[in-house]
Specification:
About 40% of the residues lie in helices and about 15% in strands. The chain is α/β, with parallel strands linked by helices.
């Protein structure tokens, strides 16, 4: 991609595999509601395919409280470190993510903080995607313009749409439940990939 100096990544379902967190969360919803885990998963999938947050919608539908987010169940995707290693040789790497406090510490624990030049996370900044303010903070810290940057994320609503509006190039990584999003014409990203390794052919 011509003129690109910075690659900004989301974290959840982009660099970090959250499937075990959701598995635990669905199990908790099943236990509290008396429904089967299969029922919870199938209902959640119905909502994800309607561009809604499936876990939250199911919890609301059944009138039960959803468990908190358990970061101890997060794992890197198998190709995360390899891809970041390769890309960091060619680009500056940044994070723009909606995360709870302690994002930098978690990235350090995963062993990937060393590849990342700028970390902008919602809890520490007091603003979150899709608000343009969190993107503007990232541009300021990186010393780049939107036109010099690519946003890479799994969420069309939080990653692709706001980045497009700002003039960033966009890559939709179809991992996690975000891959089921039904695109409208104005939401179409510049590129789509099915995993991080696919980025190496694009970038």
């Amino acid at each position: 991609m011509d003129g690109v100096k910075w690659l900004f990544f989301d974290i959840g379902s982009t660099l970090v595999d959250e499937s075990l967190v959701y598995e635990y969360r669905f199990g908790g919803l099943a236990e509290k509601s008396g429904k089967s885990t299969e029922y919870i998963y199938d209902k959640a999938m119905e909502f994800y395919r309607q561009n809604k947050k499936g876990d939250k919608e199911v919890a609301s539908l059944l009138g039960v409280e959803m468990s908190g987010w358990d970061t101890t169940r997060e794992r890197l995707y198998p190709d995360t470190e390899e891809v970041l290693t390769a890309l960091h040789e060619k680009y500056n790497i940044g994070i723009i993510a909606n995360q709870m406090y302690g994002t930098e510490d978690r990235l350090e624990a995963f062993g990937i903080r060393k590849f990342i030049d700028v970390v902008v996370a919602s809890a520490e900044e007091g603003t979150q995607k899709p608000d343009r303010k969190i993107f503007d903070i990232a541009f300021e810290r990186a010393g780049c313009t939107p036109e010099e940057a690519v946003m890479i994320g799994d969420r069309i609503d939080n990653d692709i749409v706001p980045a497009k509006k700002l003039g960033m190039k966009t890559i939709w990584i179809k991992q996690g439940f975000g891959r089921f999003w039904q695109l409208s014409e104005e939401e179409i990203p510049d590129c789509e990939v099915s995993c991080l390794t696919d980025l190496l052919d694009l970038l």
